[in-house]
Amino acid sequence: VNVTVDYIRAATTSTESGPVPAFPERTCATVTIGGINIAEALVSKGLATVIRYRQDDDQRSSHYDELLAAEARAIKNGKGLHSKKEVPIHRVADISGETQKAKQFLPFLQRAGRSEAVVEYVFSGSRLKLYMPKETCLITFLLAGIECPRGARNVPGGAPEPFSEDAALFTKELVLQREVEVEVENMDKAGNFIGWLHIEGVNLSVALVENSLSKVHFTAERSSYYKTLLSAEDVARQRKDK
């Protein structure tokens, strides 16, 4: 994405703002992707409204006129918030840790092969929370084929294993809030799904191993990705030896 800072709104205190709650300093910017202004796109679909400013307040978007025009079109066409129709209810089932519900979903996800997902949260290098749009559910997903360093939450005594934070950061930078594809192979006793996650042709398990942030787990021997994981491990060793 491209980010252009329009202005920085100074912090306000409760004494200055009276009944208005205090706010920290805020950087306000225009964010575009592929030439599309995200704010304008949201407003045009009726998923956001444009803030009205005082005439003497020049701290506003550099594309303020375009935002107003987009809002006018959305109102005219009855888009989103401006629609007179009843708002549809979108129900999302959170089956994270729900063993029985997870068992019901497992066969569908296994048969689906590669399924689209969005990474909602990264708990660690190999543990993620995914939104499955087709199934309209949230699941906890564990990367298959690897043994990733555990963070403080998963270690008795609360001391994180070496490189656990590096692995978590690597995964966040690569996939957090991104569209991915997953192959679900199995699930554990706690209702967490186990499988392979791909983003733009990159297998996350392989990428972690290649960057010396995970080891190949013996269970990977049964996988079609086993040779790829071993090759990634060789690459990691060669980098370490240099």
From TrEMBL:
Q: Name one GO cellular component term.
A: nucleus
InterPro entries per UniProt: SNase_OB-fold_sf, Staphylococal_nuclease_OB-fold
Q: Which SMART domains match?
A: SNc
A Pfam family found in this protein is SNase
User: What terms describe the molecular function in GO for this protein?
Assistant: nuclease activity; RNA binding
Can you give the residue ranges of the TNase-like domain?
Answer: 113-242
Highest taxon of source: Eukaryota
Any Gene Ontology biological process:
mRNA catabolic process
Note the PROSITE patterns from the entry.
TNASE_3
For this entry, the protein name equals Nuclease domain-containing protein 1
Source organism (scientific name): Clarias magur
